[in-house]
C-alpha cells in the first residue's frame, strides 16, 4: 500500500473520534484515558494523544495509530482496517482505475469460491453418504463438520463447471479460478468424488480447497489442493484460523501449529481450540506474522518422523528469528497429533504440550537427524544473525550457550565473523541500553520533520549505537517528505521499533537544541574511535595512517568540546 494514501487518511481524521467508536474515553490533561481493551486492568493505563494522533497502553505496551487500533481490535488485515477507518470517518480513499480493475476481479473470484463452497455443502447433505461415513469413521463430529463447512465434490466430469456457469456466468474468472483443468475434451472439474475442505482467510473468506480421497484405491494422491490464484497463496494462509483466532488471542495466548487438516481437526475435537495447520508447508514468515495478530507464542506439533522433526526445527527457528516465543511439542516416533490423540487421549497430549521445549533445548537432545553438536550450534547461531532486535538476539544467544555449555563470548565472536563476511558491521563494544542524546534527537525530528534534511548533512545512521534508535533514524530519513503524521510510519517498521517510537513521541519536549544532541553524539563517536586507536597503540599495532587519524580525532574532540587546548598524545 502507498504510504502517502495512509498518511493522507491519518492527517485528515482524529484518532479520538475513531477509538470512541469502540471504547469510552475520558479527558486527562492534554490526553485521553481508558481501560485498555487489549488486556485486563482495573486502573486506566491506555492513553490517547490527540496531538500526536497515537495511542499507547503503559500497562501492556501496545501502541499505534487509528488504523492499527482498528486492525488489532477487530483482528483485520491492514488494508481492511484502512477501509474501516475511512468508512467510520467519512474519508474517501483514492481509487485509481488499475486498483478498481484488480479489486473487481478479486471480488469476482471470492464470489466464485463462495458459490463453490455452497455447492459442495449441498452435495454433502444430498449425495455425500460416503463422505459422511468417512467423517464418522474418523471421529469428526457433525458440529465440527458444520463449523469448518465441509462439502463433497460429485464424481462428475464438469458438474461444478456447469453449476457455476448457471449461477455465475463469468467464463474468464472461471478459467483463472484454479477450480478446473483442461484437456482435449475441454474444461473439467479439478475436484471429483472427494471430501472437500474449504480454506479460509483469517476473516472467513473462502479462497481455496483441499480435496481428500476417501477410498485408498481411488486414483490420484491423498489430497488434491487448490493451486495459487490471485486470492490464494499457500504460504500466506493458515487452516482453521478463522475459527480459532479468538481462542488463540484472548483465552490461551499461544497457538498449536500442526501440519495437516486432520491433525488440526483432531486437536480441535479434543478441546485444543487454539490450533491451526500450516497446510502441509514449511511454516512461512507470512504465516508467523499472521499469527502475530493474536499471539507471540507458537507451539510446533509436527509428525514424529525425520521429516516432521526437521520441519519442526525449521518452523521454530523461523518464529525465533521474528522474535516470537517458539516451542516444539515432541511426538513419539511414527505418530502424528491425529494418531496420538486417538490412541492416548487428550490428557497425554496435554502433558506433552506442558513439557514442550524451546528450540535450543529440543535441538540439543535431538538425535534422529544425526546432526553433530558443532553443526547444531552453527545453525542456531545463524538464526541469531537474522534477528532484528538486539535484546532478543542477546537473550537467544545466552540460551544457546547455556544449553550447549559453551562460552557466550564465542557465539558473539562467531556472529561478528559471519556478519563481517557478509559485509555487515557489528559494534557491540560500546553497546548500552540507553543513549539519551539519540533519543532526544529523534524526538526533535519526529516533532519537526522539516529538520531531517539539515541533520542528515551533519550525521548519518552510524552515529547511533542503539539499534532501535538507528532503525528509527533510517526510517525517518528514508520517508522524509512523504508523511504529514509521524504515526503513519508504524507501517514502515517492525512492532518492537514502533513501540519505542511511540514512547519517544509521548515524551516531554526536549530541553536542549538539536545541535547539542548532534554534538554529543559526534563527541561520543570520536572518543570511542580514539579509545580503539589507543588500545592498538598499547600493542604497537598503529600504522602511520592510524597515527594521523588519531591526530584528526583529537582535533575534532577539542573543537566539539569547546576547549582552548587539548593535550595531544603526539606532537
Describe what this molecule looks like in 3D.
The protein has 571 residues and is an alpha+beta fold. The protein has five domains: 3-89, Alpha-Beta Complex (DNA Primase, Chain A); 98-232, DNA primase DNAg catalytic core, N-terminal domain (Alpha-Beta Complex), CATH 3.90.980; 241-366, Dna Topoisomerase Vi A Subunit, Chain: A, domain 2; 372-431; 436-561, DNAb Helicase, Chain A. The protein is 50% helix and 11% strand. It is built from 25 helices and 16 strands. A five-stranded antiparallel sheet has the order 1-2-3-4-5. Strand 12 (255-258), helix 11 and strand 13 form a beta-alpha-beta unit. Helix 5 (97-127) crosses helix 6 (129-137), helix 5 packs across helix 8 and helix 20 (436-447) packs parallel to helix 22 (467-478).
Describe what is shown at a glance:
The protein is built from 25 helices and 16 strands. It is of the alpha+beta class and 571 residues long.
Which terms would index this structure?
571 residues, alpha+beta, DNA Primase, Chain A, DNA primase DNAg catalytic core, N-terminal domain, Dna Topoisomerase Vi A Subunit, Chain: A, domain 2, 5 domains, 5-stranded antiparallel sheet, 5-stranded mixed sheet, 25 helices, 16 strands, 11% strand, disordered C terminus
Please write out the topology:
Blueprint: H1 3-11, H2 15-19, E1 26-28, E2 31-34, E3 46-49, E4 54-57, E5 63-64, H3 66-74, H4 78-89, H5 97-127, H6 129-137, H7 142-147, E6 151-153, H8 159-167, H9 171-175, E7 180-183, E8 186-189, E9 194-200, E10 206-212, E11 223-225, H10 241-252, E12 255-258, H11 261-269, E13 275-277, H12 285-291, E14 297-300, H13 306-321, E15 325-328, H14 337-344, H15 346-354, E16 357-358, H16 359-365, H17 373-385, H18 390-404, H19 408-421, H20 436-447, H21 452-455, H22 467-478, H23 495-505, H24 514-538, H25 544-561
Parallel strand pairs: 12-13, 12-14, 14-15
Antiparallel strand pairs: 1-2, 2-3, 3-4, 4-5, 6-9, 7-8, 9-10, 10-11, 15-16
Helix pairs in contact: 3-4, 5-6, 5-8, 11-14, 13-17, 14-15, 17-18, 17-19, 20-22, 20-24, 22-23, 24-25
Amino acid at each position: 500500500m502507498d504510504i502517502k494514501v495512509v498518511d493522507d487518511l491519518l492527517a485528515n481524521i482524529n484518532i479520538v473520534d475513531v477509538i470512541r467508536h469502540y471504547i469510552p474515553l475520558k479527558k486527562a490533561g492534554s490526553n485521553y484515558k481508558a481501560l485498555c481493551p487489549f488486556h485486563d486492568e482495573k486502573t486506566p493505563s491506555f492513553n490517547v494523544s490527540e496531538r500526536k494522533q497515537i495511542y499507547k497502553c503503559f500497562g501492556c505496551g501496545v501502541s499505534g495509530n487509528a488504523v492499527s487500533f482498528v486492525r488489532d481490535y477487530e483482528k483485520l488485515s491492514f488494508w481492511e482496517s484502512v477501509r474501516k477507518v475511512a468508512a467510520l470517518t467519512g474519508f474517501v480513499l483514492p481509487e485509481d482505475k488499475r486498483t478498481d480493475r484488480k479489486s473487481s476481479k478479486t471480488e469476482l473470484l471470492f464470489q466464485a469460491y463462495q458459490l463453490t463452497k455452497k455447492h459442495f455443502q449441498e452435495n454433502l447433505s444430498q449425495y455425500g453418504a460416503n463422505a459422511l461415513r468417512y467423517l464418522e469413521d474418523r471421529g469428526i463430529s457433525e458440529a465440527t463438520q458444520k463449523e469448518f463447512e465441509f462439502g463433497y465434490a460429485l464424481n462428475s466430469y464438469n458438474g461444478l463447471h456447469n453449476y457455476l456457469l448457471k449461477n455465475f456466468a463469468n467464463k474468464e474468472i472461471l478459467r483463472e479460478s484454479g477450480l478446473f483443468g483442461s484437456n482435449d475434451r475441454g474444461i473439467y472439474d479439478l475436484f471429483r468424488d472427494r471430501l472437500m475442505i474449504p480454506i479460509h482467510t483469517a476473516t472467513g473468506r473462502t479462497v481455496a480447497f483441499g480435496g481428500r480421497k476417501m477410498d485408498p484405491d481411488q486414483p490420484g494422491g491423498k489430497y488434491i489442493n487448490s493451486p495459487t490464484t490471485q486470492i490464494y497463496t499457500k504460504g500466506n494462509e493458515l487452516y482453521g484460523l478463522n475459527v480459532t483466532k479468538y481462542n488463540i488471542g484472548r483465552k490461551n495466548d499461544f497457538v498449536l501449529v500442526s501440519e495437516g487438516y486432520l491433525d488440526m481437526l483432531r486437536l480441535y475435537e479434543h478441546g485444543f481450540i487454539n490450533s491451526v495447520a500450516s497446510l502441509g508447508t514449511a511454516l512461512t514468515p507470512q504465516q508467523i506474522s499472521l499469527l502475530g495478530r493474536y499471539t507471540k507464542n507458537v507451539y510446533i506439533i509436527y509428525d514424529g518422523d525425520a521429516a516432521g522433526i526437521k520441519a519442526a526445527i525449521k518452523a521454530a527457528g523461523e518464529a525465533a528469528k521474528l522474535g516470537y516465543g517458539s516451542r516444539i511439542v515432541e511426538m513419539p516416533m511414527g505418530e502424528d497429533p491425529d494418531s496420538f490423540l486417538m490412541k492416548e487421549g487428550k490428557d497425554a497430549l496435554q502433558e506433552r504440550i506442558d513439557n514442550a521445549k524451546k528450540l535450543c533445548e529440543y535441538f540439543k537432545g535431538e538425535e534422529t537427524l544425526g546432526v553433530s553438536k558443532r553443526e547444531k550450534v552453527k545453525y542456531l547461531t545463524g538464526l541469531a544473525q537474522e534477528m532484528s532486535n538486539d535484546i532478543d538476539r542477546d537473550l537467544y544467544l545466552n540460551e544457546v550457550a547455556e544449553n550447549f555449555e559453551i562460552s557466550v563470548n564465542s557465539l558473539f565472536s562467531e556472529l561478528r565473523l559471519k556478519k563481517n563476511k557478509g559485509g555487515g558491521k557489528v559494534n557491540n563494544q560500546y553497546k548500552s541500553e540507553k543513549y539519551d542524546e539519540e533519543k532526544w534527537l529523534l524526538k526533535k525530528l519526529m516533532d519537526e520533520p522539516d529538520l531531517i534534511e539539515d541533520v542528515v548533512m551533519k550525521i548519518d545512521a552510524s552515529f547511533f549505537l542503539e539499534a532501535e534508535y538507528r532503525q528509527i533514524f533510517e526510517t525517518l530519513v528514508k520517508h522524509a517528505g512523504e508523511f504529514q503524521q509521524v504515526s503513519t510510519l508504524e507501517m514502515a517498521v517492525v512492532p518492537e521499533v514502533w513501540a519505542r517510537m511511540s514512547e519517544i513521541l509521548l515524551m516531554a519536549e526536549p530541553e536542549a537544541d538539536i545541535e547539542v544532541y548532534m554534538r554529543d553524539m559526534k563527541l561520543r563517536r570520536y572518543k570511542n574511535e580514539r579509545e580503539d586507536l589507543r588500545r592498538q597503540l598499547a600493542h604497537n599495532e598503529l600504522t602511520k595512517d592510524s597515527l594521523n587519524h588519531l591526530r584528526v580525532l583529537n582535533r575534532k574532540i577539542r573543537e566539539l568540546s569547546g576547549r582552548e587546548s587539548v593535550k595531544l598524545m603526539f606532537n
